[in-house]
Write a structure and sequence with these properties.
The protein is an alpha+beta fold. The protein contains 27 helices and 11 strands. The longest helix has about 35 residues. The radius of gyration is 26 Å and the shape is globular.
Length: about 700
Amino acid sequence: MKTVDDFRAAAAKANSVLTIPDWEQTPEAVESATKDAIGKANGALDQIAAQDLKKVTFKSTIVALDDLSYRVESAGNRAELIKQTNTNEAMRTAGENAVKVFQDWAVGVDYREDVYKAMKAFADTHPKLSGEDKKLFDETMRDYRRAGLDLPPDKRKEVEQLRKDLAKLGTDFDSNIVNAKAPVIFTKADLDGVPDSFFASPGVKTGDDAYTVMANVTFQFITVEENAKSEATRKKLYVIHDSLAKDTNAPVLNQMLALRNKIALRLGYKSWDDYQTEIRMAKSGEGAKSYINNLITGIEPKFSAEVATLQKMKAAETNNPDAKIFVWDWRYYSNQLNKQKYDVDKEALRNFFPFQKVLEGMFRIYQSIFGLKFEQITPPFKWINDLQLYAVTDSATGEPLGLFYLDMFPREGKFNHFAEFEIIGGKLLPDGKYQRPTAALLCNFPPASADKPSLMTHTDVETLFHEFGHALHEITTRAKYGRFAGTHVPRDFVEAPSQMLQNWVWDKKVLDTFAADYRDPSRKIPAETIQKMNDAKFANAGVFYRRQFAFAALDLAMHDVHPEDVPYDCVAITNPILEKVFLPIDPDTTMVTYFGHMNGYDAGYYGYAWADAIAADMATVFEKAHDRYLDRQAGLRLRREIYEQGDARDVSLSIEKFLGRNQSVEPFLKKIGVTVQDKHGKPAGPSQEAR
Ligand SMILES: [Zn+2]
C-alpha cells in the first residue's frame, strides 16, 4: 500500500501540502497542545493589536485574523475528533475539555477591543478590495458589528449581558426538554395494533395488564402513534407528548424571545429573524418568510389530496363519513397506507447492500463524475484496526487534493450518529503554499456478523452518499481563506449538495452499478421494488412537508417584528399556525415548549426546506444531462462551481452558475408530486427573494 509520502512530490509540484494530523496519544498531550494553540493564537492577536495603527494593511489585520483563527480551528478539530473517536475514555474526556476551551476562546476573540481597533483602523482606510478579499473584509467587519463592537461602550455592555442571559436561558430550555419525562400507562387493549416487538422492549410491560409508554422517548411515541388502532390512545399520547415541558419551558421561551428581540433591536435590526438570516442565503426574515409561504401555497394541492385519502381511510375504519384527520391521526393512517400500497421488505433489501461493495460502488461513481481518484494509503496512526485512510487526486492532472479517514462501525464511546468532520481545512498559507484538507467520516453502519458481511439498509446507503458528499465539498476546495473553504458555507445551503446526492440511491441505473445480492451477485434489485420505494417516498410528501413548513413558519413568526414592551406568548403565536398550516390540534397542547430547535436553530428551521428545494433544483442539471446521475460534465460543473468555490463567492451566484439559469422551486414541487402550471402565481425561488 502507498503512503502519504508517495503523494508529496506531486503536491510540491502543485505548490500544495498534504498533512496527516499528529494525533496526541495522552490526555496530557491533548491538554498541552490546546494550551499551545491558544497561547500562539493569543500571541498573534496581541501582534495585531500592537501594530502601528497608521500602518495597518489587509494582511496585517483581516488576513492575520483568518490565519490565526484557522490554526486554532485545526487544533479544535483535532480535539473534537479525539473526543468522538478515541477508544480510551480519559482521552475522550481530554478531547471534550479541549473543545470547551476552544469554544470559550472563540467567544472571547469577538470582544478583544484592541484587536478590533486595528481592524477598524484598516477599515477606515476605505480599502479597495475585490472578490474573495473583499468578501473576507466585509464579513470580518460584519462579525464585529453583529457582536456589538461598533456600539458605544454602555450599549455594548448591555448586548454582552443580554447574550449571556440568553445563553443561560438556552441551557435551561434544553435541560427542561431533557428532563421532561412522561410515562403513560395503557392496557394491552388500548395498544391494539402496536407490534409485538414493542411490548417486548425493556421497561414497557409494567404490570399484569399495564404497559408504560414514555411519551418523551421518540421511538416509543412514534411506534404507538403509527400503529395504535384506538384514536383515544393516539390522542391521549399525543396530548401528553405535545405538552411536554409546558410549565417549565413556556416562560423560558417567552423570555428568550424577548431577549433575542432586544439584542436585535440594540444592534440595529428590526427583528431577530433579520439578525439570524443576514449571514445566510435568505438574507432577511422577509426573504425566508415569503419563501416558506410560497411553498405552503405551492404544496397545497398535494397536501389536500393526501389528507383526503387519509380521511377516506378513517371514514371507512370508523364508519363515520364525517371523520376528520387530526394531528394525532396522520402517522397512523399514513402508516396503514404505506403497508397496503407500498410495502417493501426493508430487511430483505439489505442483502443487496453489503458495505464494502456499496463503498466501492460509491467510490467508482464519485471518482468518475467528479474527475477524481481515491487511493487507500497506510495511516501512520490508527485509533482502531479497521480505520481506513485515502488520498484524493485529480484524475486528469494527478494533483493531490486531500485526504480522508473512514471510521465506519459502532463501538462503545464513539460518536453515535453519521457525520463528516473537517480535521484540516483548505487554506492558502502565509508562505504561499496551499494546505490541502484532511477530513473524516464517522458512521455507525451495521457491523458484520459471524455468518454475514455488514449489510446496510437503504437508508444507510443514502446516508453514506450524503455524508461522503460533504467530504468531497471539503476536499476539492480552492478557496483562499479558511473562513470560506469547503463546507464553510451558509447554514441554509450546506446540506443542499449532499441532499442532492441522495437522489442517486433511488435510481435503478445507479443502483445497478453496485447493488447486488451478496449471496448471488448476478441478482439486482427488481425494478418494481425500486418503483415501489419511490412511490412510497412521495405518497406522504405533502403531509411531511406541510408539517415541516408549519414548523418553519411558526419559528419565523416567533422571531418576527415585535414591540419591545409587549410580553411574548409563544404558545399563542404558534398554535394557530400549526393548526392552519398543518392539521387541527388540541388547544391545550404547547408543541413549541418541546421544540428543541428553538435553541440553536431559532429563525433557522426554514433552512431544511430551503436546502431541499435547492437540492431538487440542482439535481435537474444531472437529470437533463446525457448520463443523468452518472454524467461527468454535470459532475465536473458541480465540482468547479459549487465544491471548489465554497463560500469564496456568494453561494446564490455559485448555484446559478451551476444551474445556468435562475433558481426555481418548481423542480422541488414537481419532485414531490405537485403539478406546476403556468407562470402566474408561480412561487418565487430563494434567489429572487434574496435580492
Ligand atoms: Zn449533511
